[in-house]
Amino acid sequence: MASKEKPAETDEDFKARIGNMMTSGFLSIGVAIGSAAGLFKAMSRLGKPASCSEIAREANKKERYVREWLASMVTGNIIDYNPDKETYFMSPSRLQTLIGGREHGYIGRWVQLIPSICLAYDEILHCMEPDGPAGVPYSVYKAFHGVIDGISSLRFEGGFPVFLSNMEDLKTKLDSGITVCDIGCGVGRDVFDLAKAFPKSTFHGVDIAERIIQEAQIKADESDLSNLTYHCYDAARLPEDWSDKFDLVLSTDSLHDQARPDLALKEFHKVLKSEGYLIIIDINSHTKLGDNLNNPSAPLLYTISLMHCMPVSLYFDGGLGYGTMWGMEKLIALIDNAKLTCERHFPLEGTAERVFICRKIL
Hints:
Elements: H1 11-36, H2 39-46, H3 52-59, H4 63-75, E1 80-82, E2 87-89, H5 92-99, H6 107-110, H7 113-117, H8 121-128, H9 144-151, E3 156-157, E4 160-161, H10 168-176, E5 179-183, H11 189-197, E6 202-207, H12 210-222, E7 228-232, E8 246-252, H13 261-271, E9 272-283, H14 298-314, H15 327-337, E10 340-347, E11 353-360
């Protein structure tokens, strides 16, 4: 029996869909504020229907702002409201969806990306003009790295890196003591957690953003992690005396942001020992748009690319601007061109990422 074709969308249907999308967009900002301001956590601690003043007091926030936020959440069907008692309530299951950990995908943190990337809204419009700048500097995205830091927790479970769960030989080496470099480490969350998990190994974190590297080193020093050092370097120009230095090189969700990922991969080859591993964690997507049409996360990821990943790459001279959705086919081709080989790749469960296990071609 032939399947029924989906009815064509009418102009009125399209108008209604855009209206609903717009409302959801505004509502998402409210959810982001509730997550960032700790309002959902305050309601979870109260554990019962509560007044606006009780919620504001528990969260240590101004009541007038909390009241307006609650109105947005109630009319958006996020929070339940009793008009007779003027109390607000969320079920524990709904609260866990927004404040829960890895098992809930850190939705409360993901939604905070929306306002963080919108800091570049005017700059992106300027970049689109024929005589506008090529890209946007990292300094514009003041909150972005902090949000990504929280989301990167998805790669760890109980303090252990999930992406190493099927690599027993590498875990054994990390337990015994090897030298590791996380290139494009951002605020350094991944390499920080690895340094705690494997105290006998030596870790280095590298990023081009000087401010966040300084902050990451302060955190490491305050935590007495003597096996972790951070450096401010361009991934496409690593020190010459680092040749054949590292047993393991990591690139976690940052290679697509690089101005020249092709040159960065060649530098990864340079600093990797002959028997070492290169592990790249990047977005789980395809290079061709047509191959991403059934990916439910594609609209989100293409928009993040437009608002952040592509323009920060294009900001630098010669930046290629591949963007978030450059795809596994493009990445694997660049890996091969850098005299590396991708032995296997697989999706990282519970994330929008894919893991690429690579070795050096001698």
